[in-house]
Write the structure tokens for this entry.
Amino acid sequence: MAPVLIGLVAVFFLGMGLLGLVDPRRLIRPFGITLDSATARTEVRAVYGGFGVAVAVLLAFAAFDVGGIQRGAAIAVAVALVGMAFGRLVARFTERPEGFYPSWLYFWVELVMAALLVVSAL
């Protein structure tokens, strides 16, 4: 069961990462951010694109427990996801994002993916 749960999260990160590399404007558009310079697009490609693909690769190795990394990798990515969700929670009290989409949708996506990874590590 753990490989399937980890694989689901890996697919999400891979999709996000590839979109971030190929079309950073499209990836970030729902958040109302404009990418008017090459430097801005490079940042999105690095943080959302490259990092997303790297996490997907790590999780792929974890799904097959290559080198016995399954539990540690799953917990590490789960902690990162909880950190992202926490940032959105802080924003709830400081910025008060409007509507459910995109901030709250991703808050719940991050928590659900973190939970899947924690369950896979048990």
Remarks:
- Residues 38-63 form the longest helix (26 residues).
